[in-house]
Write a structure and sequence with these properties.
five-stranded antiparallel sheet, 10 strands, nucleic acid binding, SH3_retrovirus, 252 residues, SH3 type barrels, RNaseH_sf, Nucleotidyltransferase, domain 5
Length: 252
């Protein structure tokens, strides 16, 4: 059919048209504002999806005005780390994407911005569907764990982290992580979200007779290190530590 639509163009050229590469096209969308701000005071979620691998990144913002700065930083960092050039960025018609700051940056680095028509979210369907998947997963995690709603950002982060490593891309029979990193993901370190944890209290001045440990709840991983993120109900803060013992059985 497409052979005829394209005026009987040779099949080699048609095949080249449908070839995809990493970071050739990025889908972006901003979700929010949330009714409840996160534990760090954030209300918006910026979601970025690579069209080729379906690898997803999430960023949490205080306001939609921060979107331009985060997008520019993300593109610069990933282009340096992966040695790949972003060709196109597809967004909706919101002012957080359609502004002079981003237009100037895209023009300087040679990126084409594709903007969907107003009130036509299906034109940016890849990231819209991923948004819905992440939010539904986060809602399920928080409901099952019976945790406060201000931990929604932690739930979305861990949902994104896991989906990048477990969801199989139908075209390649590989996960997004495998397509990005050329190796299979290691999931041996995965823990149950909201499981009880006992962490070393190395964030306070502990005197001789005070307890050196604290009880918390596991809420996430760190990409840059082996540390994990623990919500401490006593201090109502998120702590990052490697000195943690997990109890995944007691609350099953």
């Amino acid at each position: 059919l497409w052979h005829q639509r394209l005026s009987h163009l040779n099949f080699a050229t048609i095949n080249n048209l449908v070839k995809k590469i990493l970071f050739n096209l990025l889908h972006m969308d901003l979700y929010g504002p949330m009714r409840v701000q996160s534990i760090n005071g954030k209300r918006y979620v910026l979601v970025v999806v690579d069209d080729y691998s379906r690898c997803t990144w999430v960023f949490f913002l205080h306001s939609n005005d921060e979107a331009s700065e985060v997008i520019i930083f993300f593109i610069k960092k990933t282009q340096v780390n992966l040695q790949l050039q972003v060709q196109r960025v597809r967004t909706d018609n919101g002012t957080e994407f359609k502004n002079k700051t981003l237009a100037k940056f895209f023009d300087e680095v040679g990126i084409t911005q594709q903007i969907s028509a107003a009130r036509t979210p299906q034109q940016n369907g890849v990231v819209e569907r991923r948004n819905r998947t992440l939010v539904e997963a986060a809602r399920t995690l928080l409901t099952f764990a019976n945790l406060p709603s201000f931990l929604w950002a932690e739930a979305i982060t861990i949902a994104c982290f896991i989906q990048n490593r477990l969801i199989i891309h139908k075209c390649f029979d590989k996960t997004p992580y495998e397509l990005m990193n050329k190796r299979k993901p290691n999931i041996k370190f995965f823990r149950v979200f909201r499981c009880r944890c006992y962490l070393l209290n190395d964030y306070e001045d502990v005197r001789k007779l005070k307890a050196k440990g604290d009880i918390g709840v596991f809420v996430g991983y760190l990409k840059e290190s082996a540390a994990v993120r623990i919500y401490n109900k006593r201090t109502r803060k998120i702590h990052e530590s490697v000195n943690v013992n997990f109890d995944e059985i007691s609350e099953m």
